[in-house]
Automatic annotation (TrEMBL):
Membrane-protein topology: Peripheral membrane protein
Localization terms from the record: Cell membrane
Keywords: ATP-binding, Cell membrane, Membrane, Nucleotide-binding, Translocase, Transport
Species classification: Archaea, Methanobacteriati, Methanobacteriota, Stenosarchaea group, Halobacteria
Protein name: ABC-type D-xylose/L-arabinose transporter
Organism per entry: Natrialba chahannaoensis JCM 10990
Length: 379
């Protein structure tokens, strides 16, 4: 096991015309499981490949344990990587695939290699597949072999590059739990890259969010969900995504009123809430954010009741997603026993404590939620 420290990491391509990773600072604690998430092209896989030694940084520093490995070749780093496409040798058996790394990177003799492979295969529940070749295996079995090949090396650091994206939904759920169980049992420092924010939220001790090669926010998944540091994070984390409405802020008797330009939305913040956020809020334009699950159907006489028409109803099992005619896209998540149809008129409301307000120009959250804006020292 080992801690990982990344300082001012930068990766350029095409003589600096493309910047894949831009000044990344990150510290990962010994035995910690960190998930890295972001949209395609955000730099997450490039970061992982630099940790593995498969890409050379343009500048910056990488430490694994107490060693500066920035210029150390991949084969000399005590790192095991699990790839999206499994990367198994098709002409080798499962046993030979799992033993190959041991033969190339350790001084273990044949008997010791065999013992370690068999023990790992039993742990991964693939002992009966050791004589099979990859084309005889299902997708889930191939993924277990790829995991087993990484585990058998007993590395200081596990790196996972979207390892479950080729599996069906049910098997992904099973393998997520399996990876978490194994990491908890083995206690090996792990970095898990994914584009799936649900995976990132449910698997990691800490979540790291990238966009355009830059760190946007990091922290415990619940903290990031509840206290996004900017509009990008607020919209990226959560499903369905956070609703956004461009509003102007105006002082009125009893508080602050938020209005959209079309006159379809108005919400008044109480005097107590306005006073508590007086330093952050002034007259001007902001983007209001509210999560679909924070919205409830209200009586038309309720305080801050907002009229809305139902455009589409999406039943998703335990919930219904209501697409409402507020702004370009506005979704309310309500229980499945709330039966509505397209064309219905309803009133909705939400609690002012659930509101996020983002600066209209910078996108930064202005309400002063207790959020983490700088890279943190992990536990």
């Amino acid at each position: 096991m080992a801690r990982v420290r990344v300082e001012s990491l930068r990766k350029e391509y095409d003589v600096g015309t493309v910047v894949a990773v831009d000044g990344l600072d990150l510290e990962i604690g010994d035995g910690e499981f960190v998930t890295v998430v972001g949209p395609s092209g955000c730099g997450k896989t490039t970061t992982l490949r630099m940790l593995a030694g498969l890409e050379e940084p343009t500048s910056g520093r990488i430490e694994i344990g107490d060693e500066d490995v920035t210029d150390v070749h991949a084969k000399n780093r005590d790192v095991a990587m699990v790839f999206q496409n499994y990367a198994l040798y098709p002409h080798k058996t499962v046993f030979e695939n799992m033993a190959f790394g041991l033969r190339m990177s350790t001084d273990l003799d044949a008997e010791e290699r065999e013992q370690r492979v068999v023990e790992t295969a039993e742990m991964m529940d693939i002992a009966e597949l050791l004589e099979d070749k990859p084309d005889e295996l299902s997708g889930g079995q191939k993924q277990r072999v790829a995991l087993g090949r990484a585990i058998v090396r007993e590395p200081d650091l596990f790196l996972f590059d979207e390892p479950l994206s080729n599996l069906d939904a049910k098997l992904r759920t099973t393998m997520r739990a399996e990876i978490q169980r194994l990491q908890d049992e083995l206690g090996i420092t792990s970095v898990y890259v994914t584009h799936d924010q649900h995976e990132a939220m449910t698997m990691g001790d800490r979540i790291v969010i990238l966009s355009d090669g830059e760190l946007q926010q990091q922290g415990a998944p619940t903290d990031v969900y509840e206290n996004p540091t900017n509009k990008f994070v607020g919209g990226f984390i959560g499903s369905p995504s956070m609703n956004f409405i461009d509003v102007s802020v105006e002082q009125v008797a009893g508080g602050l009123r938020l209005d959209d330009s079309d006159g379809n939305f108005s919400f008044t913040l109480s005097a107590a809430y306005a006073t508590a956020n007086d330093a952050a809020l002034g007259r001007g334009r902001y983007t209001l954010g509210i999560r679909p699950e924070s919205i409830s159907i209200a009586d038309s006489q309720s305080q801050n009741a907002i009229s809305a028409g139902v455009d589409v109803v999406e039943p998703v099992g335990s919930d219904n997603f209501l697409h409402l005619d507020i702004g370009p896209e506005f979704i309310a998540r309500v229980p499945s026993d709330v039966t509505l149809e397209a064309g219905d008129e309803i009133t909705i409301t939400f609690d002012e404590s659930d509101i996020h307000l983002f600066d209209a120009d910078s996108g930064v959250e202005v309400l002063g939620h207790d959020q983490e804006t700088q890279p943190a020292t992990p536990p």
